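Pipeline run #58 for the internal structure catalog. This entry was flagged by the ingest filter as a single-chain record with no existing model, so it goes straight to prediction. Upstream metadata was stripped on purpose; only the residue string is passed forward. Reviewer on rotation: M.T. Logging verbosity set to normal.
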Amino acid sequence: MQNPIIIIGAGLAGWSTARELRKLDKTTPVLLITADSGDFYAKPSLSNAFAQKRGPAQLVTTPAASMAASQNITLHAHTRVTAIDTVRQTVHTSAGEFAYAKLVLATGAQPIRIPMSGDAASAVLSVNALQDFSEFHARLMSVNSAAADGGIDLKKRIVIMGAGLIGCEFANDLMGSDFEVTVVDPSASPIAALLPPGLSDELREALANHGVVWHFGTTVQRVDHQTEAGGALKVHLANGEVLVADVVLSAIGLRADLSLAQAAGLVCERGIVVDAHLQTSAANVYALGDGAQYANGRTLPYVMPIIHAGKALAATLAGQPTPVQFPLMPVAIKTPALPLVVAPAAPGTAGQWAQSEPGVWLFTDTDHAVKGFALSGPQTTRRAELAKQVV
């Protein structure tokens, strides 16, 4: 009996690889193992669902059972992988042991947890998957219900830890849905690691004009229950200020989930290290997605890199060794208060940002060659044009 290709993880990386493989190979058995339901959904939709008035159920585009049936894949949902034996080529799970011919790790990333004190520290939420969003949505709806039952017409108070891409997308989404949004970040401006400083300042002003309150240059140190105010939380900042919130959302970033890979002896750095064909340090074991570290030490936690990697890996798994090639992949940032598209230069590129015209920023290296760009407002429609200028 032929051992299957086993895919661990049912996020975009796992399902994309499976679907691309089935375009090339209809018969090789494929087993997909996931700790959650495996339902297919667009992860970027988690940070703009409230403005679209969509709950968790509405975010699912294809139920897992339907997806598995359409792709002729055996699905083990709600199954946790406990160990990988790369010598015997077996995967140990809560549902038993499975042998594989090839193994794909699409294990993704986990929210970064920072040390925090207080009797409500465990009440701080993170949203990185549909199950997380379900809990976040339920918490916000319970706040709504409590206010309605008490005859109170108050905006729900949300404190977001982190002014990065995801934090700003959530801030923009929630502020348009009758929430009072406060964002706390140690940087001086939003999405500071990705945007030109001037454009970062524009985003800060645009979101502030829509009601977002910023607390830069500080962090959250402690979260306590405020017993005198129902279910409210007291959020203590490092600068001594105290905020009151109904919900605290941590969006300070993600870190590759390396637990299985490290325990299996795979080489890991910032992610699971893979070569051009997405193979790890173990034979017949591959990785892609948010948990992988590609050439030049790059991690690419965005949608388009996953799509490109999934296609290349599927070809390799189907017997057509194909190195992954990443073209320029601009990132669209979902902040309608100031729509943004950014194509950052490769890590380590020496150079500087400069605004060439309103809404257009170029990153040029020391030889004055364009290596990246950022667009805002109406200029975001010019991404294809600007991409041609990057060398």
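catalog note: The longest helix spans residues 130-149.
catalog note: The CA atoms of residues 50 and 173 lie 6 Å apart.
status: ready for reviewer M.T.
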